[in-house]
Q: What sequence folds into this?
């Protein structure tokens, strides 16, 4: 079935990964216990998992789901809804829920992810800029916060919000750890206690034993078709944080006069609860697959991030392929090893929300799910491929074997 030489090579890489795997398994055990305790704390009953229609005024599932996620993420309260279409949508609701004309948003992790460009800087499209919200940023230095520059900007601009993107996005920097975020929170609080600190937590959920809200972040958001939904939630997103901040966001999500008092969902809530419960283990599978794939790539001569031996802070693995054709072929390899749409051939295209052509491979049961094994990248130098996901570790290993067979 597999070339013996290649399989032996990948197995040797796997043995080298075992010490990291053991650390990740301890984190997953801690997080699974945390999630289980959240379910037990809200006393979830089978009768609580029910659909609703109309206004959904008596929708118990909506409230219990939000309470479970809030407890698991160390937040006071939150919004968890299948009506949130994506991580970008969740971030947008949070930003517009807090920021007002004349306010400043200060990103301290460089420019946010590409899909937020039109939301922040767009003209004539209802962007933050259109509504008079100002934007400023501080670049990371060697993937670390530039505290001196941040202090200067906070004093000068008096931002309503300090914004952090935890994951690397389409950049070559490292993702940001929760401890680093906690250090930044303390630093900003010493300068301005009123500034709302927000984190884009996409791809970071359940990777560490702590989440950003555990270290004092006021607001964070993400997608349920990434880590937080465990590969089971079919859609949706979450926004959790400090109670008074979430109340502001709820007015944007529904309406100022209603907040979170209404909101129905006629479909089944079961996969959203199941997805939350499965998320720590599924995230573990994705992380182990990422570590193995990275080790294989490095031993074949490719630059891969995070480098071997470093603990990951999100599920994203990046490879510098250095050539557009190699990037395209890498994504096609992922696609043909997918359980769904394996015969589809991805091509670069002008994807909405991006400023470069993007190639994406995602032969997934849930369209666009990036907790399922997927890969993508912008068609621009240095032609980085971004790999993420894997519902089970064995699937990722199979693809790593094919990758090794091509380059060994």
A:
């Amino acid at each position: 079935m597999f070339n013996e030489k290649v399989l032996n090579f990948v197995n040797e890489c796997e043995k080298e990964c075992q010490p990291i795997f053991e650390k990740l398994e301890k984190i997953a055990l801690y997080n699974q216990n945390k999630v289980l305790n959240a379910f037990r704390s809200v006393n979830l009953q089978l009768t609580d998992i029910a659909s609703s229609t109309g206004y959904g005024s008596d929708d118990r599932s909506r409230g219990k789901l939000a309470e479970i996620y809030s407890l698991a993420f160390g937040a006071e309260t939150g919004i968890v809804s299948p009506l949130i279409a994506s991580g970008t949508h969740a971030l947008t609701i949070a930003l517009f829920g807090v920021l007002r004309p004349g306010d400043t948003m200060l990103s301290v992790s460089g420019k946010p992810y590409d899909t937020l460009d039109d939301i922040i800087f767009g003209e004539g499209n209802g962007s933050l800029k259109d509504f008079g919200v100002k934007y400023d940023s501080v670049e990371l230095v060697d993937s670390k916060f530039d505290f001196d520059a941040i202090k200067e900007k906070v004093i000068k601009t008096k931002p309503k919000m300090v914004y952090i993107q935890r994951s690397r996005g389409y950049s070559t920097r490292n993702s940001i750890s929760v401890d680093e975020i906690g250090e930044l929170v303390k630093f900003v609080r010493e300068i301005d206690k009123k500034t709302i600190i927000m984190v884009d937590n996409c791809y970071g959920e359940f990777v560490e034993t702590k989440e950003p809200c555990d270290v004092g972040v006021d607001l964070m958001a993400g997608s349920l078709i990434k880590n937080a939904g465990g590969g089971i939630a079919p859609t949706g997103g979450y926004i959790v944080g400090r109670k008074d901040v979430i109340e502001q966001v709820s007015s944007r999500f529904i309406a100022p006069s209603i907040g979170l008092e209404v909101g129905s969902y006629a479909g089944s809530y079961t996969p959203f609860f199941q997805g939350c419960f499965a998320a720590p283990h599924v995230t573990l599978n994705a992380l182990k697959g990422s570590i193995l794939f990275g080790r294989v790539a490095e031993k074949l001569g490719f630059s891969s991030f995070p480098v071997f031996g470093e603990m990951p802070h999100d599920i994203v693995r990046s490879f510098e392929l250095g050539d557009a054709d190699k990037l395209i072929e890498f994504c096609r390899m992922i696609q043909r090893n997918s359980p769904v749409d394996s015969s589809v051939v991805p091509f670069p295209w002008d994807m909405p929300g991006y400023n470069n052509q993007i190639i994406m491979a995602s032969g997934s049961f849930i369209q666009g799910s990036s907790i399922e094994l997927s890969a993508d990248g912008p068609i621009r130098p240095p032609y980085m491929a971004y790999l993420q996901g894997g519902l089970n570790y064995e699937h990722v290993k199979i693809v790593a074997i094919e990758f090794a067979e091509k380059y060994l």
Q: What stands out?
A: The mean pLDDT is 96.
